[in-house]
Design a protein that fits this description.
12 helices, alpha/beta, Rossmann fold, 2 domains, 362 residues, globular
């Protein structure tokens, strides 16, 4: 693998993956394609370890002529596809963009790869690979007594976001079985870590607590998720790309399933220790319960036996160590936070999403 196209590489997981690649393999050139929507930012790509091997291109994965030209110009032999609309709440308020990016965009990338790699033989007999990054939310929700999601769990998406990702997974699998396109898929659990756009639970709680704002807890806060530190996720993806079996799906998770309320309490405890002079200590006094979102899945849990057994991958970070690193990063990177707030619709969206949810109780 020489020329790796990373789609969505200015977003949270994508930018961390770009850093991982540049630090891991000195022979790889990274071509980073991102449309720079609200959640993608060049701020996420500052101070790369080897910027000479990183080429950033702004563009839309739905623009077929543009994508095709990119494949030709840089002789792309590997695609790692992160580009997606990912926030459930936003998909409830406006699903159209999720269908466009997650379904049409994935189709466009797949069909360009099929046309150039398999039909035109752009790279001759050189090995090629298309890796698709998906989510555990395609499996729906679990009851307390249900076993964790495995790679053979039937799909049952419950939000426009998860439905769009399920659709893209099916397209990737179809291009493998119908056309022989060399593909792999990973379905990951909730990621957290540096550079995450602050609409998501972990950074939202960290930043609100630092600023003394309320910490909105959906419903009773007992929704259960599996939490995966982003650097562990990046390592897992590359392990699948380089060693995984073509046509296979691998679940990636953090091996923990605490309720959301516990996550918020842990964040508050860490902030109490890192910021002993904060006027908002103890930070858990800022908790505020708000109306739950529609169709909120109650529980996710991931079975990661397959990737452990076949590829020898396991998460290195525990939830405690990963959260400590994450909270510390946001505390230390105020400039990044300020830049993201200025260049996005973050505050407008936060006001719109939470304004109607206030239950008025702490």
């Amino acid at each position: 693998m020489k020329n790796v196209l990373v789609t969505g590489g200015a977003g949270f997981i994508g930018s961390n993956f770009v850093r991982y690649l540049l630090n891991t393999d000195p022979k790889i050139q990274v071509v980073n394609l991102d449309v720079l929507s609200y959640a993608g930012s060049l701020e996420n790509l500052r101070n790369l370890s080897d910027p000479e091997r990183h080429i950033f291109v702004q563009g839309d994965i739905c623009d077929r002529p543009f994508v095709e030209a990119l494949f030709r110009q840089y002789s792309i032999d590997t695609v790692v596809h992160f580009a997606a609309e990912t926030h459930v709440d936003r998909s409830i308020l406006g699903p159209a963009q999720f269908i466009q990016t997650n379904v049409v965009g994935t189709y466009t990338l797949l069909d360009v790869a099929r046309t150039l790699w398999l039909n035109e033989k752009l790279l001759g007999d050189q090995p090629v690979h298309f890796h698709h990054v998906s989510t555990d939310e395609v499996f729906g929700t679990l009851r307390p007594e249900d076993p964790p999601f495995s790679e053979v769990t039937p799909y049952q998406p419950n939000s426009p976001y998860s439905a769009s990702k399920a659709s893209s997974d099916h397209l990737v699998r179809a291009y493998y079985h119908t056309y022989g396109l060399p593909v792999t898929i990973t379905n990951c659990s909730n990621n957290y870590g540096p550079y995450q756009f602050p609409e998501k639970l972990v950074p939202l709680m960290i930043l609100n607590a630092i600023e003394g704002k309320s910490l909105p807890i959906y419903g009773d806060g007992q929704q259960i998720r599996d939490w995966l530190f982003v650097e562990d996720h990046c390592e897992a993806i590359w392990r699948v790309v380089t060693k995984g079996k073509l046509g296979e799906t691998y679940n990636v998770g953090g091996n923990n399933q605490p309720p959301n309320l516990e996550i918020v309490h842990q964040i508050c405890t860490i902030l109490d220790e890192l910021k002993p002079d904060s006027p908002y200590r103890p930070h858990n006094q800022l908790l505020k319960y708000v109306t739950d979102r529609p169709g909120h899945d109650r529980r996710y849990a991931m079975n990661i036996d397959k990737i452990q057994a076949e590829l020898g991958w396991s998460p290195k970070e525990t939830l405690a160590t990963g959260l400590l690193k994450t909270v510390g990063w946001y505390v230390e990177n105020k400039e990044w936070v300020e830049a993201i707030h200025k260049q996005s619709d973050y505050q407008t969206w936060i006001d719109k999403n939470y304004a109607t949810r206030d239950k008025g109780r702490g």
